[in-house]
Amino acid sequence: MFERFTKDARAVVQGAVEHCERSGSGAVDAEHLLLALLDRRGSRASFALAALGLAPEERKESVRQALGDARRRAGLSRSEADALAGLGIDVSEIVARVEEVHGVGAMSGDRKGKEWRSGRRTFSRGAKNVLEKSLRIAVAHRDRHIGDEHFLLALTILPGVPGEVLADRGVTYDALVRVLHGEGESKAG
């Protein structure tokens, strides 16, 4: 599948690996792919994000903050935390208690200070789902190659924190399709 990736898509995967390493995470996850997409300039995904009102300076910090908040909740999305609240489980209280005993970020699952077992980075099920969905989206649009815009589309359609964070900022699958494949001046080249 990687041979079908464009230069921009390959750069996103490499960027995701770098984000994973910097964060000390055990595996590349969908959130690392999102952060790497936000780093891109001059690509179809970066154009689409800008067209939907996410300026590079603003988008990075607000998205990082939202992803960090989710990591503190052990990766639970807000909708999952709300569902648990409906059952009488206060995720904020659980996080506060765990952090009181074990320190801030104890539920994040990061591996800071730990050695990697091998030179290769593994991809979590969530990241693999993004890559697989990207392929399916490219095929559905009759695109010969998988670009970074396909990663972005996949992140918006798959359930989880990255899609929720994007939707909160007006980046939805439908909005992206209009920008990337629609008619008119906002179509990505």
Quick overview:
This protein is mainly α and 189 residues long.
Q: Would you give an account of this structure?
A:
With 189 residues, the protein is mainly α. Helix content is 61%, strand content 0%. The chain contains 10 helices and no strands.
What is the number of helical segments per DSSP (H or I, 4+ residues)?
10
Q: Taking all residues together, what is the mean pLDDT?
A: 83
Within CATH, the superfamily carries the name Clp, N-terminal domain
Number of strand segments:
0
Strand content: under 5%
CATH architecture: Orthogonal Bundle
* CATH fold-level assignment: Double Clp-N motif
CATH class: Mainly Alpha
Q: How many distinct folded domains?
A: 1
Determine Rg (CA atoms, Å). 17 Å
Protein structure class? mainly alpha
Gap between N and C termini, in Å? 24 Å
- Helix/strand order, N-terminal first: HHHHHHHHHH
Portion in helices = 55-70%
Low-confidence segments, ≥5 residues, pLDDT <50?
A: 110-117
How would you sum up the global shape? globular
Q: Biggest sheet, in brief?
A: none
Any chance you could write out the topology, listing elements then pairs?
Elements: H1 7-23, H2 30-39, H3 44-51, H4 56-72, H5 78-86, H6 91-102, H7 125-140, H8 148-157, H9 161-168, H10 173-181
Helix pairs in contact: 1-2, 2-4, 2-7, 2-8, 3-8, 4-9, 7-8, 8-10
